[in-house]
Give the backbone structure.
Amino acid sequence: MIVLKKPSEVETMRRAGRIVARTIRELAESIVPGKTSARDLNELGERIIADAGGVPSFKGYRGYPAAVCVSRNEVVIHGIPDDVPLEEGDIVDIDVGVCLEGYHADAARTFPVGAISKESARLLAVTKESLNQGLAKAKVGNRIGDIAFTIQKYVESNGFSVVRDLVGHGIGRSLHEEPSVPNYGTLGKGEMLREGMTICIEPMVNEGTWKVVTLPDKWTMITADGKRSAHFEHTVHISRNGPDILTVE
Ligand code: MF3
Ligand code: CO
């Protein structure tokens, strides 16, 4: 069942989304190559979210042990923070969810750590642009397949692949609601977008194969070929005025 949100509920999600966006930015700004670890990011993130009056959506969700997912290089998503310092040349996905007054918002961005290779920079740029192109299709009367197809086409035409095993999702009182929002699909197919829907679009883009493997910790997903992966995500409200991105400052 897809839950449509009233304007007052959307405004609460927008306030949660502002905290998400600010947390991700401040975490990225705090990174010192060779020094900052994922655990440092998690601890700072927890503090920023609590000071803003929110609750981290991920901590304890199905047993996930941290407030922030930090996924580095070949880690696609759901990296569990550890003590290894981030190094110059790495790429790092910072994924944050915040619950405020019972409503969630969720976003992610992948950042360069210091100077990175040309190919990694292109991976980040293509993934970010694929999200933007998907967001542009998040309009009343379009279908989920229009978003999915658009993302897949852009990514593959740039020589990268989209992860199939993980998808975007509806969001609201629950972190994950219907509908599923895949990053691959067919124009004109899937659920029709209606005013008041709130969804997370989150392309995960790999340099090599789209196949992924889950580590024995049951969370960390890495690329099957060990090549790098990037991830960008926004929470967007389907409004009569077009795509209304909630995870911005
Ligand atoms: N952005 C991811 C998602 O929407 C992060 C979830 S982490 C989890 O699925 F721990 F909450 F699962
Ligand atoms: Co999400």
